[in-house]
């Protein structure tokens, strides 16, 4: 039994057209580059302790020395909000002629006791005289800040670089190095420094 070929050819042609029209977009879709998925490192997140430690703010805050950042254990500050990193301010001798003289003595003591000192800022504010300097630290440069206010000198000594070991979220180090630096400057000045032991006596 024979079939008329004239009626089959249009159907085959039509099927072929449908097959091509269906497969072509699929081939194009498969050959197109897939959108890249960005895998963000936990260090890049603005909420990690590491990223927060990079945002080190300097200068006075509401006319006061800033507290130590919670993400930076290598710090001491006379701001009471520093809790475990708190240090008592220095008491300036009453025979000091002026606050300008106090700042000058402070500069000299910093230069004598610290390495590669660079004075970055000095400002005479309504709250007192603010002095900021950079010095060599354990890893990179550290920053020391002072506020001379009448008979008291507030300060903060803080590391600019904090070391974290992934995946731990606790920074390495402590504030002993910063406290030793402040002690050296205070000993050079010879100013009275209160402490908790004296308060217990």
TrEMBL record:
<protein>
    <submittedName>
        <fullName>Thylakoid lumenal 17.9 kDa protein</fullName>
    </submittedName>
</protein>
<keyword id="KW-0732">Signal</keyword>
<dbReference type="InterPro" id="IPR037734">
    <property type="entry name" value="Thylakoid_lumenal_17.9"/>
</dbReference>
<feature type="signal peptide">
    <location>
        <begin position="1"/>
        <end position="29"/>
    </location>
</feature>
């Amino acid at each position: 039994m024979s079939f008329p070929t004239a009626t089959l050819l249009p159907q085959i042609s039509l099927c072929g057209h449908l097959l091509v029209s269906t497969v072509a977009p699929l081939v194009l879709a498969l050959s197109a580059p897939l959108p890249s998925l960005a895998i963000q490192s936990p260090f890049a997140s603005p909420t990690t302790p590491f990223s927060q430690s990079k945002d080190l703010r300097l200068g006075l805050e509401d006319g006061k020395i800033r507290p130590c950042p919670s993400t930076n254990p290598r710090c001491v500050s006379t701001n009471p909000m520093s809790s475990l990193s708190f240090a008592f301010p220095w008491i300036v001798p009453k025979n000091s002629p002026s606050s300008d003289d106090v700042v000058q003595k402070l500069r000299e003591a910093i230069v004598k006791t610290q390495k590669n000192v660079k004075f970055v800022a000095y400002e005479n504010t309504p709250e007192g005289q603010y002095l900021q300097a950079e010095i060599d630290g354990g890893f990179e440069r550290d920053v020391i800040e002072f506020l001379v206010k009448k008979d008291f000198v507030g300060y903060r000594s803080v590391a600019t670089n904090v070391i974290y070991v992934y995946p731990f979220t606790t920074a390495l180090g402590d504030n002993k190095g910063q406290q030793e630096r402040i002690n050296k400057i205070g000993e050079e000045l010879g100013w009275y420094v209160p402490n908790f032991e004296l308060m217990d006596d």
